[in-house]
């Protein structure tokens, strides 16, 4: 997380990622430690996942603000949270877990209630949230924390029925096409009517197929902008009608202009924490023009 006023090139955050052997399908994890004593106030860019943020800081912790609502500490960020900001003061640590919507549905149940919201983890997990925080905070290293997180998630993944195979397939196709697949085409591929696909997709993942495609397409464009590509080129490569269309979508999903989005520190750590986060499976664009965070060698610099 980039502290306000941090000069370019300064190592402002350490990033730790799990070893390849510590992983779960549909789950990506990264640990962050920001060391500057200054105020942290950043805009969190929408991403095609449900995000679990476990605040491991001592003291007041991080405050998340969206739609005029404030949540402090550990939270679950549903799909499409809107204009979301994170603020806090001083050094701190956070475990961020990205869950694809299919996995999130198996972990939390149907995602409809989480979509577009930020809720305290304790509202979702009750007293188990505090127990999870205590276990993670007491761990001696990020390696140990990642192992604990996998154990916690594994115990909960069977608590809810899985989504329909057709819905899981439709989500994967949306990702691999980078949001450029039509709903009618998806319906034909799974053998359903358009109306049935739309209804099941929304009820199980908390988002419509069209909105999901727009979110995935926006994410691809955001990372191209962060890599330093011009907005006009990004618009064409991401499937937008023109540059004005790109501007409107960036404003809708991030509340920013493409220029401001390109400089977002939230994106600057992605090539370190999630270097293969591109929907098509290729390496995410390099953020060469952004100050690079320092990778935490306690986790041996390996990606999940």
Automatic annotation (TrEMBL):
Residues 165-264 form the HTH araC/xylS-type domain. Residues 287-304 have a biased composition (Basic and acidic residues). GO terms for molecular function: DNA-binding transcription factor activity; sequence-specific DNA binding. Residues 278-304 are annotated as: Disordered. The keyword Nucleotidyltransferase does not apply. InterPro entries: AraC_XylS_family_regulators, HTH_AraC. Gene3D superfamilies: Homeodomain-like. SMART domains: HTH_ARAC. PROSITE patterns: HTH_ARAC_FAMILY_2. Keywords: DNA-binding, Transcription, Transcription regulation. This is AraC-like DNA-binding protein.
